[in-house]
Amino acid sequence: MSTKNKSAFVCNECGSDYKKWQGQCTDCGAWNSLSEVRLGPTPANRAAKFEGYAGGASGNKIQTLAEIALNEVPRFSSGTGEFDRVLGGGFVPGSVVLIGGNPGAGKSTLLLQTLCNLARTMPALYITGEESLQQVAMRAQRLGLPTDQLQMLSETSVEAICAIAQQVTPKVMVIDSIQVMHMEDIASAPGSVSQVRESAAYLTRFAKQTGTVLILVGHVTKDGSLAGPKVLEHMIDCSILLEGDNDSRFRTLRGNKNRFGAVNELGVFAMTEQGMREVSNPSAIFLQRAEDAASGSVVMVMWEGTRPLLIEIQALVDDSHLGNPRRVAVGMDQNRLAMLLAVLHRHGGIMVGDQDVFVNVVGGVKVMETSADLALLLAVVSSFRDKVLPQDLIVFGEVGLSGEIRPVPSGHERLREAAKHGFKRAIVPFANAPRDKQLGIEVVAVKNLQEALNAL
Q1: What is the mean predicted confidence (pLDDT) over 394-419?
Q2: Which of this chain's residues are annotated to bind ATP (predicted)?
Q3: Do 302 and 261 share a structural domain?
């Protein structure tokens, strides 16, 4: 006699559970946060399984850290250097990768290219739940990809997908996308919190048991975060976000979580008629400056993952006709811009409180670190004074609230990258001054904001 499955309703915000659905969680006060969770039957003999257990039934035993064998994690390449960089060196068998991005960013195109190339040497399975097989085939033909080896499947049932995958035993499997997948014994609609969580958990368990590389395509919300429950990002091994504006041909692949590599690693691609093409030297693209030098422009070196990247920061300071002058930052934190302008006034003696200040990072790159503080302030001063900064000048450093210039990590590698691209002068924190004088670049080490302004 089969035991009937029960269900509970769990709050996505605080985790409180209820016997029936209600509009508001009475514990945390959140509205429409309850989702149905299936509760499996409890075996009557579960306690009997632990009687007399000596640790040898399944071969598991307790070990100390010193006894664990440190074998190198096996990997295989995706066929693209920039993709491998973000993954930490390639795909790890049995790992689960979640890739998200805005509609039209190129997620399906990048994965279709990757699987068509991998299918030449290993069994690969591409499962589409949003597009028809004809649409995927037309895209592959338009991109000129090899289509004779890749196996395709159009299915949205997770149980059916795992049953078919168990027969064909692929080494790499793509699910496009996790939001349209569903399990038969869950009553909620596809895309709901419970469906996404249970489907991802089922697929992850299959990937771990079979050693299959599982790549999940995820949707994003309007604020750019991955849609679905937060527990989805805890289940997977690697979370990647494909970013890029529709009016730009360049796409950035950023790693937000990686159990097998560096976090915040950045890969750059160019969207062409032949699909996504990797950009091996991103600094050369972001440094395509105008022939006629203009004020308010300076180049800085940011550190992304395991490599330096040269980008241009532009600032525009103009008289404000409003009672509350505007502060607009594109590609940077707007609150940090307001804080740095206050430091400029207090410790630099330059007042821009009655000016509109606009700051932009060229190329659509988002600066997440504080090493751009000094470059931002010097660009603002250049625009405010209408003085052109030298084209061969590089700047980086963190600015503190007392006007001191703080050091940033990997300063020597940043200077080496700047010298490789032909820059002759640099303004850097005093603690980042290189001991090696053979870099071929003149370094001005400054301790505070006033010294940096005097160095100009």
Answers
A1: 93
A2: 101-108
A3: no
